[in-house]
Write a structure and sequence with these properties.
Layout lengths: L4 E2 L16 E5 L2 E2 L9 H4 L1 H28 L4 H20 L22 E5 L13 H5 L1 H11 L10 H17 L4 H21 L23
Antiparallel strand pairs: 1-3, 2-4
Protein name: DUF4389 domain-containing protein
InterPro entries: DUF4389
Organism: Streptomyces prasinosporus
Length: 229
């Protein structure tokens, strides 16, 4: 396993700005990356995949409870919100390590919490109020156009590790580039971050964490749009 020197510092996502989407993904590309470790990350990440399988099953149940809580009170219970957002955060770390980006060789931690010194972060602003009416339609009807796009981006992959569709294909290209050159093409990395950002925004909307409709926009790179360089 290679020694890690980060190419740029990207802090954990902070509060959303006035123009920012409330679900925020940030990352930095570690360098150098191993030329060959990516070939066995499917095995190394397997314990995470097993745990995330059960966590996502729990998210399904939590989302049902949250649905009725929002419908009757207009609020997503904070402990349930923190659990669901934590599963998304954990999923993104694993995806970043494995076949959603191959952006680091640092093994992800088994935790729902943010890991400040890990190179991949995800967060979402807790909403004080959610629409009681939108909760009836946003996760299936309003999000449908995005689901069609995500079907192309991730194919039949599980959300936990983003290994199918266009994202999986581009990640394979990145692995081949690493194997033959030892370098990760920067343009390819920025594109993959933009695609994953789109997926996580839609995921946050679909599991009722926000009422803000995901933009049909590809924001590439490791920083959220509007943040300082």
């Amino acid at each position: 396993m290679s020694t890690h020197v980060t190419s740029s510092a990207v802090p954990p996502p902070g509060p959303a700005g006035p123009q920012g989407y409330p679900a925020r993904l940030t990352a930095r590309l570690d360098a150098p990356l191993s030329r060959w470790l990516w070939l066995v990350k499917w095995l190394l990440a397997l314990p995470h995949h097993v745990v995330l399988f059960f966590l996502w099953a729990a998210v399904a149940g939590v989302s049902v409870v949250a649905f009725f809580a929002i419908l009757f009170t207009g609020r997503y219970p904070r402990p349930l919100f923190d659990f669901t957002s934590g599963v998304l955060r954990w999923s993104w770390r694993v995806a970043y390590y494995a076949y959603g980006a191959l952006g680091t060789d640092r093994y992800p931690l088994f935790t729902l919490a943010d890991v400040p010194d890990y190179p991949a972060h995800w967060d979402v602003t807790y909403p004080e109020h959610l629409s009681r009416g939108l909760v009836l339609v946003k996760w299936w009807l309003l999000a449908l156009p995005h689901y069609l796009i995500l079907g192309f981006l991730v194919g039949g992959a599980r959300l936990a590790w983003f290994s199918g569709g266009l994202i999986g294909l581009l990640t394979l290209f990145a692995g081949v580039a690493l194997a033959f050159t030892g370098l990760y093409p920067r343009g390819l990395y920025d594109l993959l971050l933009g695609l994953n950002r789109w997926v996580l925004r839609v995921a946050a909307y679909a599991v009722l964490l926000t009422d803000a409709y995901p933009p049909f926009r590809l924001d590439q790179g490791g920083r959220e749009p509007g943040t300082a360089a």
